[in-house]
Design brief:
The chain is of the alpha+beta class. Helices cover 18% and strands 24% of the residues.
């Protein structure tokens, strides 16, 4: 049986945070980022103004509590939440996937 930490929860943990989202059809999808070491992380801001100052005025946002944010990210393997980051780097252009070379017949699986 695991031993749980008996320390009382920080009341600020349950305050609302503003998180960046994007709209996908009828749903809002949480945006995830990468930390300096390359691991995926979520970001949360104390105010919508702080979020817009870092991510731009057109960035959509939603309000969630810390426990709700962790409930969204933990199943995705994202265990880090950065609160009020001062800087977010621009996305790096991805390397294009090379096109397959050869005819369709040459690329078909062999039986």
């Amino acid at each position: 049986m695991p031993i749980e930490d008996e320390a009382p929860e920080d009341p600020r943990e349950h305050s609302l945070r503003h998180v960046p989202v994007r709209t996908a059809g009828p749903a809002q999808v949480l945006r995830l980022f990468r930390d300096r070491d390359g691991t995926r992380c979520a970001v949360a801001f104390s105010t919508a103004e702080a979020l817009h100052a870092v991510l731009g005025p057109d960035q959509e946002c939603a309000e969630v509590t810390g426990p709700a944010l962790r409930a969204l990210t933990e199943p995705l393997g994202v265990h880090r939440v950065i609160t009020d980051p001062a800087l977010v780097a621009a996305p790096v252009a991805g390397t294009p996937v090379p096109a397959a070379v050869g005819t369709e017949r040459e690329l078909a699986p062999q039986r």
